[in-house]
Amino acid sequence: VGAPREARTCRDAFARLAHARPIGLRRRNGEEHVRLVVGADAARRARRPAAPVPPGGVAWVMGHAPDDVSAAGRDACAAAVAGLGGAAPIGLLAFGAAARRAVASEPRTVAEHADGAPVAGFYGYGEIARARGVSAFHHQALAVLAVA
């Protein structure tokens, strides 16, 4: 995965690599998930994800550039504001996965889409409710709510 040598011995170097290379999962029913890697055993060539990996699916090492993560954040903000049907937002509330802090700048991105309205939010560890479907972990998600 292009890991620098220091990622094997330096905790910070490993963390930078892990945030840029989460584990992608696809279950038999087509559902997709992402798992942040929080540890590894270099001798066993094993990664330890932050949440369980369900059996019976396909797993792969993902990769992205920080620009891709930031673009996804901009898309989430734009979609939230577009959902107001042309009304100006009176505020934006953002819930970001803590793993995004290392690769994106959500506070600035959300503020840029707020058109001067107040912005609030926090980074969490997957505490995002789903409107439908089964529960899942959202290790690199950003959810934005625009209020008019």
Helix content: 10-25%
The class by helix and strand makeup works out as alpha+beta
Rg, Cα atoms, Å: 17 Å
Per DSSP E runs of 2 or more residues, the count of β-strands stands at: 8
Question: What separation lies between the terminal Cα atoms?
Answer: 44 Å
Low-pLDDT ranges: none
- What is the residue-averaged pLDDT? 80
The total count of helices amounts to 3
Query: How are strands sequenced across the largest beta sheet?
Result: 2-1-5
How much β-strand is present in the residues?
A: 25-35%
**Shape field:** elongated
Q: Spell the H/E element sequence.
A: HEEEEEHEHEE
Q: What does the main sheet amount to?
A: 3 strands, antiparallel
Give a structural overview.
This protein has 148 residues and is α+β, with helices and mostly antiparallel strands. It is built from three helices and eight strands; from the N terminus they run αβββββαβαββ. The chain has helices at residues 11-20, 66-82, 106-113; strands at residues 23-26, 32-35, 37-41, 46-49, 58-61, 91-97, 119-124, 142-147. It has a three-stranded antiparallel sheet with strand order 2-1-5, with no helix packed on it. A three-stranded mixed sheet has the order 7-6-8. It has a two-stranded antiparallel sheet with strand order 3-4. α2 (66-82) packs parallel to α3. The radius of gyration is 17 Å and the shape is elongated. The chain starts with 10 loop residues before the first helix and ends with a strand. The model has no long low-confidence stretch (mean pLDDT 80).
